[in-house]
Design goal:
The protein folds into two domains: 217 residues, Spore Coat Polysaccharide Biosynthesis Protein SpsA, Chain A (Alpha-Beta Complex), CATH 3.90.550; 159 residues, 2-Layer Sandwich (60s Ribosomal Protein L30, Chain: A), CATH 3.30.1330. It has twelve helices and 18 strands. The chain is elongated. The strands form five sheets. A seven-stranded mixed beta sheet has the order 5-4-1-6-10-7-11, sandwiched between helices. A five-stranded mixed beta sheet has the order 15-12-18-16-17. By secondary structure, the chain is of the alpha/beta class.
Amino acid sequence: MKTAAALIVAAGRGRRFGGELPKQYADLGGIPVLRHCLMAFQAHPRITRIRTVIHPDDRPLFDAAAEKLGVDAPVPGGESRQDSVRLGLESFEEDAPDLVLIHDGARPFIEEGVIGRVLDALQEAAGAIAALPLVDTLKRGRDGSVLSTEDRSELWRAQTPQGFRYPEILTAHRAAVGKTLTDDAAVAELAGLSVALVEGGQENIKVTTQEDLEGAERWLRGGQVMDTRVGQGFDVHAFGPGDHVTLCGLRLDHDQALVGHSDADVGLHALTDAILGALGAGDIGSHFPPSDPQWRGADSSLFIGHACELVRARGGRITHIDLTLICERPKIGPHREAMISKLSELLALPADRISVKATTTERLGFLGRGEGIAAHATATLALPAVPLSKGP
């Protein structure tokens, strides 16, 4: 089977977009626009590698957007998009793929079917692009007046990905240095390569302005108005015999263990209850009864995963969590960043939307005597709004 790489072009500065960040790093549904794009290609079974072309100043932004996705290290772009694509293609030379799909990093909603159709077309053609037929009536105008109505029957709106056989498109881009062309298909056409048209997607929008980003947010939530919901959770476990505690999914060496029916991860238990509370879906005990032997010693990541799945099933998303661990020992500070990283993985939530804090009770009460650990959590969710019923 031919190898296929994705080259994501994300080196632009987005001057029309405005805002503090380039458009490809703007927040969309809780994660950067670029991360949506990277995840779509990562999920496709026929894409073997993903490499991104970025502006050299954006490396910290890229690292955050691509965290734990396992994509290639990025390569620096050039003065123009065309230069950036050529540099990205050249970076593959030492271990070249058979096929390469070039995609705009500001198109977050590329679907598996579109990727597959472009790849399929490359079995016959040297190039293939996703596109949509023009359906609006096309007018030629000047100075605010209509001059004529144009024939739209053979006109298409080009999208990305635009796929090519790797050697041919690299050669074509090198030959086009110094020329200004609008997309990679134009580069291929100039070189005399055949380029097929395949059906793109209405959802495959490009974020260029703030209005585009707002439209993408609406599309992401199906056009629905979203409610902000907040839930709280509290849990406590006593110490007993053992050599470690499990907190926020991490095993920490300790001279005692926490006692509980599952792994007694007080942090994940409180978080699970907070999410369930925001959903109005009961508590952890109603979903995972301690009387049920199948949960004896269970990994509490199962509980948090279940709560996250309930959020997704409701068409919502977690937007922020805040967790406070209350204990005298073990010391939480040295493990705080690792806890945030683990929670980011479990919740599929950026680390900057997760807070983990620690405090004590100033030696007061059972926690102050070092007899256990407590946790208090708050979860903020965005859920599709449901009209409130009217009173009598």
